[in-house]
Amino acid sequence: MDQRRFDRLAALFGAATSRRAGLAAALGMLLGGAAAADAARRGHAGADARGKRPESEWSCGNTRCTQNTDCCTRLCDAQNRRCKCLKRGVACSSTRNCCNGLKCRDGVCSRPPRKVCNASTCANGCCNGPTCVTATSASACGIGGAACVACTSLAAFCSAGTCSAGTWANQTTFGSSGSGNDQFSNPRGIFISADTLTLWTADSFNNRISIWTRGDASSTSWTNQTTFGTSGSNNDQLDFPNGVFVSADTLTAWVADRSNNRISIWTRPDASSTSWSNQTTFGAFGSSNDQLAAPYSVFVSADTLTVWVADTENNRISIWTRPDASSTSWSNQTTFGTKGSSNDQFENPSGIFVSADS
Questions:
Q1: What pLDDT was estimated at residue 13?
Q2: N or C terminus: which one in the chain shows less Cβ crowding within 10 Å?
Q3: pLDDT tens, 168-208?
């Protein structure tokens, strides 16, 4: 063997990935077999006459695979003996077999359907690109699948999918004068649920709380659901109620029972019930800390453990607490304010509102 041929053989042997491949390289040189030497350079041990690996030795990195099994999260290509991914429209068994973000849907590699927002998919809102916005606001206003727009006026707001210039107009009214369930006589305070679907009214001269509902937040059609209270001084009666506050779960109502000089508390078993019953009352006529004189308004903390009362004829705010949410035992915590015109005084306070942090 000449020096040139020996040097080439040594180089091929050194570049081989295994002893077996090195021997194949040596054999290839000695026999002059170009195909076998070529196979040795590629490290394809046990290749056939065309340089292709037997099915049992298909691999991806160090992982062997067989036909139609996953290899590098794709399928082994039976034609080229390598891993490949499946293109759009090709049958698949798993999304990881599919190329470039395609999904295996109904046994075929395909692209996920594009989100579409239009009049049929977003009838009650507006389209922010492909997204339907149903809780429209001044920053995204529209209806019927139209593109959302921002109401740019300083005082603008979104009403029924249309930007308003910021001026208020009457939307609707409900009730009439009388003593029927769907009537009022000198209504005073009101309270509205967080979803704006239920309204409680202190129907003062009818000595009751009147409750009204509507079907959805865009409806202008209010109907009377029920009333509770009758004229009198018993615990389940009211005398000229002036204010009402309802818990977030709408199961408890606190009533400023003005002419009975007390706060009257009513409950119902669940949010769908129309059956309200008196739970307890607190307060009695007088000027002591644990007494009230013609309370006009009431406000209750989120945890329902503290009540602030506009103690109107005592010219003060009266604060009451209970130990836990199931308790019916209320006690006066403190009062503030005296009669007068100074900054720290009141004259007939009739409303009260407290911040969320109390």
A1: 52
A2: N
A3: 788 999 999 999 999 999 999 999 999 999 999 999 999 99
- Rounded to whole angstroms, how far apart are CA atoms 76 and 277? 74
- Return the closest-CA partner of residue 295 out of 283, 282, 309, 308: 309
Q: How deeply is 167 buried, as exposed, middle or buried, from its count of CB atoms within 10 A (0-12, 13-18, 19+)?
A: exposed
As a whole number of angstroms, the distance between CA 153 and CA 138 comes to 9
Which pLDDT belongs to residue 56? 41
Q: Assign 23 to helix, strand or coil.
A: helix
Please report the sign of the dihedral spanned by the C-alpha atoms of residue 324, residue 326, residue 329, residue 331: positive
DSSP structure class, residue 260? G
Round to whole Å and give the CA distance between 306 and 320. Answer: 6
Q: Which residues in the chain come in under a pLDDT of 70?
A: 1-84, 96-97, 100, 154-155
The residues, ordered by sequence, that sit 6+ positions from 59 with a Cβ below 8 Å of its Cβ are 53, 65, 71
The encoded tokens of residue 345 equal: 């005084």
Q: Give the residues across from 86 on adjacent strands.
A: 98
d(CA 19, CA 301): 83
